[in-house]
Request: fold
Amino acid sequence: MHYGGASWLGLLLLAGAFSTDLAPQAAAAPQSPGSTNGTHGQRTLTARRTELPVRVDGNLDDEAWSQATVSLGFSQQEPSEGEPSSERTDLRLLYTTTTLYIGVICYDSSPSGIRATERRRDDGFAEDDRISVILDTFHDHRSAFLFRSNPLGAQYDALVADEGKSVNPNWDEKWEVAAQVNEAGWTVEFAIPFRSLRVSESNGHVWGMDVERVIRRKNEQSYWNSYRRGFQLENVSQSGHLSGIENIDTGVRWRVKPYLLGGFRQTVRQDAGVPGEFESTVRDASDVGIEVMKYRLTPSLTADVTWNTDFAQAEVDTLQNNLERFPLFFPETREFFQEGSGVFDFGTSQRESDRELKLFHSRTVGRSPRGAVVPIRGGGRITGRVGGLTLGLLDMQTAPLRTAAENIFASNFAVLRAKHDVLARSSVGAFWLNREYGGIADYSRVYGLDARFVFLRYLTLDGFFAQSGEPGDVQDASAASFNSRWDSDQFFTAMEYYSIDPNFRDDMGFVLRKNVRRTTPSIGFRPRPGVWNIRQVDVSGRWDYFVNQQGHLIERIDHYTLLVSLQNGDSLRWAVHNYLDRPTSDFEIKPGVTIPAGDYTWRTWSFNYRGNSARRLSGLVQFVHLLDYYGGRAFDLKLNPTWKLTSRLSFSGDYRIVDASLPYGRFTDHTLNARVNYSFNNQWLTSTIMQYDRSTSFLGVNFRLNYIYRPGSDFFLIYNETRQVGGSREGEKDRALQTKLTYSFDF
Reply:
């Protein structure tokens, strides 16, 4: 069965034609206070050029800063929308030919209450006081660069796409920051080279800009410009304006970052011929290659090349416990693929808690269906902007992999993504994916169109249509989605439709299941009662209705949720879910526990408490009771504490217990993901991850030492061990000890 995806896009375009939000992208000049558009910021700051030296030490006492433009007056978003920030904040800007300098003085009436606990790069600093700066260098009201720091001068940087729909903190560039706490509060100083940004080629181009300050002990957020509730800092269409930057040098055109890897891997397996005996195999794990080679084709378009790519320092996957009959979705953790992920993030669908579809999931490149590492010979990509067009090209080549469990053919992966800006905050796009298999006459292709329109601040219409292709004449091979939603601080409503045919094939993506259509209305109310220390109440309902392509009901889920957010940063959540599931074939939900085909209905009750992360000990406690779960019952308890002992040492854990008693068997699962972080300073960082899964008798330890000896260059020491601690494979293990050195050469 085929669905008219093109007609859906036509309806979206027709809706855009009747929208009042018709300000073209080119008309991105600052608005006057009397403007009625309401989709862009009203404040403007003019940067001042200086020829004097600026020392990045967090003091702002250099003579150059006396020439800076100073902007006062931050406004609260929380807890009192539009009110002046409870503490004064001074924002200052300077620039030279090569660098943008941003200085912020965060006055504080109680400096002893300033929260600063984290030194790791890209942590996000949710537990700390912080300053975040967002720069929309193309002034397209969609994409931006995000820079953040805390009173310890730790670094966070990210790429923002589609107004925060995609935020990628694994984009790491060369920039400096320093911060100091004093008797008046704390001060932070950013130095961002223009060569680390993508900027418009036109001289004197106006940028979008906003600055957010968080005072953690007060649970207060204030903004230089965009303080309206219902928006976040990443919603760059609401940002203010930065003008006056001209005659700058965008700097480096070439960057080459090779790596040198040394170490060994050990595999211990049971000797099939001698019970109780084990065979140990040690292999060399040394290598050399090009982590990335960048060439800036234009100031706004970059080409990246990688050769013999290695991901030794990538974090291990978080253990998950699956209580459904569908496969688990694991996010991408490898830096090369994360860096440009915003451009290639299209064709996605999400159930309430499960990823339903992701047309391009980069984990398919270099990983087998069972999770084994497939060698990547090399590849490249081009990402950036050409006028109003966002462009992404990716081509990767993998080697074959032959194991006892899998036979993976060498493959070429190619992705083409193009997206054009229309209206003020909207876009239309196209995509094409192709996987060719070496040695056999097989391929998998997916191509299609998508669109996203934003009207009246809070109304979003988006959708996509995709068609798959493979050898032979295959019918019923399309996927489509349409979603309309209104999402403001006070009210939420949405209507979703999702469809995927039984023969849709996507070897470069993630597909939860095929032959399904889902219709989902939802609604939510978010009052702010202003009593009993309550900041906001969120009462919502969502109804998922699943049928197959023949129209027969196969699943239904009703969700009812009450979320209470308190002024002190704590939150309480109650939820009720009603399930109907009709599996058409038997499936194994746990080893030795098989659920027969049939009709099942059950209800779950859940409660969770999340503590304010400003506390030294915080986290999440969640309890779920599943009544009549596949004819039985189950309990699900999750503990997720975070303990900040000092600014250098912290502990976090994710411990989950599932106990189920079904007519078809009983199981009790314990799953642990624990992390210990210790930072000697902002350059010497360690993390230790410990994992345990009772259902698979899995125990794992991952240790990583990262020394950032110069911006963009790292030394890693990585130790990884996994072993079986029960069952028929008890005693089997895998170990790896590796060192990795990278060095960035700029030309």
